Each structure stands twice: as structure tokens, then as C-alpha cells.
UniProtKB/TrEMBL annotation:
Family the UniProt entry places it in: Belongs to the peptidase S8 family.
Calcium keyword on record: yes
Subcellular location: Secreted
Superkingdom as given in the UniProt entry: Bacteria
Cofactor(s) the record lists: Ca(2+)
Name listed for the protein in its UniProt record: S8 family peptidase
Active-site residues (renumbered): D47 (charge relay system), H84 (charge relay system), S248 (charge relay system)
Domain Peptidase S8/S53: 38-298
InterPro entries reported in the protein's UniProt record: Peptidase_S8/S53_dom (IPR000209), Peptidase_S8/S53_dom_sf (IPR036852), Peptidase_S8_Asp-AS (IPR023827), Peptidase_S8_His-AS (IPR022398), Peptidase_S8_Ser-AS (IPR023828), Peptidase_S8_subtilisin-like (IPR050131), Peptidase_S8_subtilisin-rel (IPR015500), Subtilisin_Carlsberg-like (IPR034202)
Keywords linked to the UniProt accession: Calcium, Hydrolase, Metal-binding, Protease, Secreted, Serine protease
GO terms for biological process, alphabetical: proteolysis
GO molecular function ontology, one term from the record: serine-type endopeptidase activity
Organism (species): Heyndrickxia ginsengihumi
Length: 324
């Protein structure tokens, strides 16, 4: 099992805070107030680890574990020595601290589970154990993982991996995965990567900032939705920032979006929502881009869409009653 291939466009030091374009495209800032910016929601980033002392992430890491042979197998050293996991974590939850970048859910918590080594490769057993750990993990205040973000994949359908993903979903954890970067820019061809091709996961394809399907994004019948995945700015190794492209970069946009939606919708319903209900709330906030369903699934995630519809209905009702 390996990282979904991705492209490093640029690496640079940065001090002045920016809101990356993808964060605005999915309308995350418009629901920050009502969602408490994801506070209290734990997202397990199952990846290459996370740079725990990155200034944008230091306050967002609630814990972690190393399942790889890196660092002589020290389970307590889950530092990122690749860069990918740090980039993913930043898109999900980089803090609003007036420096660097801000994430989709800037007050969500990250559980950093290192299942891929410095070369971006990992044994299936490492990944399976990482998912099991996420299911069973409890935080200092009895927090539970609500979202798993996995920007990794391979060509093999491994039953043990599929089974542990089913266990995670049964435990009301939304499992968000990258579709894969084997695409050829054609909707009539099918590309399959696992775990992205499992029905139980939320599979994310990539669009660019002009909302066009990225040529590299897999097309198949399991794509659930798309998010920005081209030239995405986020946190990187050595307390720097990088611009990367891939469905790996689209996935954390959705993982962060779910963190916001959990707070937003559970406040509205006044109760805990199970995973199918969270998925339903997510899909309610997608808009079709006019492509094949094999490319975009339900469409682009747009977090304030349901609120916009509600406001339109309220205004229509007001105008109707005003005329009576």
C-alpha cells in the first residue's frame, strides 16, 4: 500500500496567514460560527505522520501513534518524515493563528496515525492496525474519533482492510478516502484504487480551482463527491508550506467539512448523529458540476448550500404570506 501519487508544486516559508482557495471554494468560513470551527471533533489522519511542532498544527494534535518501522519502530514517535501527512493535516485543521494557513475546521483535533514510512509506503497490516487503533482510541476527556482521513491506496482488494473499514463505519466513524490518481481525463474509462473503491467509504475525486475535473482523478461508480485537489496550499515539513496536487489533497477538504457538519447538524438535531446521517448531511451540501457521475458523484461539496436553500424558502414563505 502506498500514498496516492501526488505532485509537489512548490515549497516555501510563509508567515502571513492565508485562507487557501479550496477552503473558500467549499464555503467553510461561512459555517465556522455555527459549527464552532470543528471544536471537539477528532479526525484521525492515517498517513505518514504529522510534524507535531509545526506552528499551525502544534495546538491541534490530540495524540498519535507510529505503526511503521521508522524510528526503529518507536510507537510514540509519529513525526512526519515525508511531508504528505503534514500537508493533509493542515488542510483539515491548521489553526487560525494569524500565521501560515488556516484549515477547513481550524479548531478540530488531529489524531496522527503514522502507517506509511518516509518513502510513502506501508504494509497492509500497519494500515489495518491504524484503523483499529482509531476505532478504539479514547481521548483525555473520553473523546472518540468521528472521522478517518486516508489519502492512500493500492490496486489490491484486501478483505482484512475492507473488514476493518466496515468496523469503523459501524462505530459511526466517517471514513474519507482519496479516489486515486490513475485517471486519464476520460469519463468513459474506469480506474479502481482501494480502499477508494469500497462502497462503505466516502470517496473523493479532485477538481481544480476553476471547478474542472482534474485529469488525474479516478473515474468509477464509487465516487461520492469532489473537492479542490489542484495546487492546494497547506502545511509542510520543517515548519514550511507547500503547494501540492492530487486526490490526496481533495480528501482532507471533505474530512474537515465533516468535522464542521458534525457540530453544525448535531446542534440542530440536538442529538448524536450516526454515520449514515452524517453522510446524508454531507451529500445535501453538494452541487452538481454537470460532469459524469463516474467523475463527480454527487458533485462539489459546498457547506453553506443547505442554509442558502433554507433562506430562499424562508424568504419565499415570507413573500407569500405578505401578499395574503
Amino acid at each position: 500500500m502506498k500514498l496516492i501519487p501526488y505532485k509537489v508544486e512548490e515549497v516555501a516559508a510563509q508567515s502571513q496567514q492565508q485562507t487557501p482557495e479550496g477552503i473558500n471554494i467549499i464555503q467553510a468560513p461561512k459555517v465556522w460560527d455555527d459549527s464552532n470551527r470543528g471544536k471537539g471533533v477528532v479526525v484521525a489522519v492515517i498517513d505518514t505522520g504529522v510534524q507535531t511542532k509545526h506552528p499551525d498544527l502544534a495546538g491541534r494534535i490530540i495524540g498519535g501513534r507510529n505503526f511503521t518501522s521508522d524510528y526503529n519502530g518507536d510507537v510514540n514517535n509519529y513525526e512526519d518524515n515525508n511531508g504528505h501527512g503534514t500537508h493533509v493535516a493542515g488542510t483539515i485543521a491548521a489553526a487560525a493563528n494569524n500565521i501560515g494557513v488556516v484549515g477547513v475546521a481550524p479548531e478540530a483535533s488531529i489524531l496522527a496515525l503514522k502507517v506509511l514510512d518516509k518513502n510513502g509506503s506501508g504494509q497492509y497490516d500497519w494500515i489495518i492496525k491504524g484503523i483499529q487503533y482509531a476505532i478504539n482510541w479514547r481521548g483525555p476527556n473520553n473523546e472518540k474519533v468521528r472521522v478517518i482521513s486516508m489519502s492512500l491506496g493500492g490496486p489490491e482488494d484486501v478483505p482484512e482492510l475492507h473488514n476493518v473499514i466496515k468496523q469503523a463505519v459501524a462505530a459511526d466513524i466517517a471514513v474519507v478516502v482519496a479516489a486515486g490518481n490513475s485517471g486519464d481525463g476520460r469519463a468513459d474509462t474506469i480506474e479502481k484504487d482501494y480502499p477508494g473503491n469500497y462502497n462503505e467509504v466516502i470517496t473523493v475525486g479532485a477538481v481544480d480551482n476553476q471547478l474542472k475535473i482534474a485529469d488525474f482523478s479516478d473515474s468509477n461508480f464509487e465516487i461520492d463527491l469532489v473537492a479542490p485537489g489542484v495546487q492546494v496550499l497547506s502545511t509542510y515539513l520543517n515548519s514550511q508550506y507547500a503547494v501540492l496536487s492530487g486526490t490526496s489533497m481533495a480528501t482532507p477538504h471533505v474530512s474537515g467539512a465533516i468535522a464542521l457538519l458534525i457540530n453544525l447538524t448535531e446542534k440542530q438535531f440536538g442529538r448524536h448523529l450516526i454515520e449514515p446521517e452524517i453522510y446524508s448531511q454531507l451529500i445535501k451540501r453538494t452541487v452538481t458540476l454537470g460532469n459524469s457521475k463516474k467523475e463527480e458523484g454527487n458533485g462539489l461539496v459546498m457547506l453553506d448550500l443547505a442554509e442558502k436553500v433554507r433562506d430562499i424558502i424562508s424568504m419565499t414563505n415570507f413573500e407569500y404570506h405578505a401578499k395574503q
